[in-house]
Amino acid sequence: MHERAITESLLEIALRHANQAGASRITGLYLVIGQLSSFIDESVQFYWDILSEDTIAEGALLHFRRIPVEMECLDCQNHYSPADPDFSCPRCSSARVKLIAGEEFLLEAIDVD
Amino acid sequence: MESTQNTNQKRVTVVEKIMGANNRLAADNRAILDDAQIFSLNIMASPGAGKTSLIERTINNLAGLFSIAVIDGDIATSIDADRAASAGAVAVQINTGGDCHLDATMLGQGLSQLDLSEIDLLIVENVGNLVCPAAFQLGCHKSVLVASIPEGDDKPYKYPAMYHGVDALVINKIDLLPYVSFDMEYFNRGVEILNPGVQTFPLSCRTGEGINPWLEWISTHVREHKMLTRRG
Predict the structure, then answer these.
(1) Theoretical Cys-Cys bridge with B72: which of A9, B81, B166, B229, CB 3.0 to 4.6 Å?
(2) Residue range B175-186, pLDDT digits in tens
(3) For B195, which residue in chain A has the nearest alpha carbon?
(4) How many angstroms separate the CA of residue B132 from the nearest CA in chain A?
C-alpha cells in the first residue's frame, strides 16, 4: 500500500532530473532496491502507470535491481547472504552479526530523450 | 523486433534516495520539536500488540510529571485518540485515508494542531503494521516497537527491517507467557542478530508488571532532552 507514496517521490525525482538535463521525455528508470526494503516491484509498476500518465515520463520502463542482504560476522569476519529465516553466521553460527547491505532504496539513473 | 535508433537518447545519473523528500520533512519536524524542547517517540507495532494500552499506561503514570501529547495515526476512526484523551493527554487524530503508515508530512500536520509550548513529551502512535512504517522516518527522537507474546516468537525473523531499525523494544503481554507457546530465547536471538544491544522492556500493560523500567527510560530521556535543548 505504501508503494503509492513511494512512486510519487520517484516520479518527482525523475522529473526534476530530466528537467535539469533539458530532456523532453523519460524512457527508463533504474531503481536499486535492497531485499530488506519492503517494496513490491509489481505494485510500484502499477502506481507508476497511473501516476506518470500525462507527464514526460509516461510509458517509461522501470528497471529493478535487487541487492541481496549481506551480513558480516563480528566473530569470524565471514561475509554471507543469510539463508532464510535465520540471519546468524552459517560458518560459526554466531549471532553477533552486522547488516552491511540490503536496505538500499535509490533511483540510480534515468534514460531520457 | 523492430527498433528505432534515437541518437538523442542518453542516460542521466541520478543516485538519489527515493525516501529523500520524506527524510527532509522528517528533519524539519525534528527541528520543530527540538525548538519546542519536546522529546518524542514513534510507537510502531502490529494491530493488537497493545500500542494504545501502553500509551494509556504511560499517560496515567507520567501525566503528573510531564505534559503529554499524543498524535494518533489511524486509517479511520478516532477510537485511539479518544482513549489517549481520556487518560489525560492532549490528543490529535490523523486519519491516513487508507494509507498503511504515517509519513513526515502527516506528522507535520499533526504538530501544527498542537500548542507545542505546552508539551514535554509527544507520543506518536503509528498505524498498526509491521512493514510500511519502518520505511518512513517521522523525525521523532526514538522509535519504539511494541511486540506482544501472542504474536509469536518468530516475528523478528519475519519482519527484519522493522526489528533492525528501532531504538527500543517493548515486549507486551508477558502475563500470557504461561498460556502461549513462545520461546523467549529464540525470539531474543532474532532480536540480538538484527539489533544488537537494543533496549528491551518485557512488560504487561494489563497487570502493570515490568512497566517501571519503561517509565524511567522515557522520563530520563524527557529530562535529558530538556537540558540538551535549553536555550542560551
Answers:
(1) B81
(2) 999 999 999 999
(3) A98
(4) 6
Number of residues assigned to chain A: 113
Q: Do A99 and B164 touch (CB under 8 A)?
A: yes
Cell digits for B202?
518485557
Using CB atoms, pick whichever of B14, B135, B154 lies closest to residue A107: B14
Exposure class string for B105-128: b at 16+ Cβ within 10 A, else e: bbbbebbeebeeeebbbbbbbbbb
DSSP assignment, residue B150?
G
Q: Do B125 and B43 touch, CB atoms closer than 8 A?
A: yes
A22 vs B: CB within 8 A: no
pLDDT per residue over B18-28, tens digit each?
A: 999 999 999 99
List phi, psi (to 5°) of B169.
Answer: -130, 120
Contacts of A39 in chain B (CB under 8 A): 135
Closest CA relative to residue A3, chosen from B4, B45, B100, B3: B100
**ipTM given for this complex:** 0.87
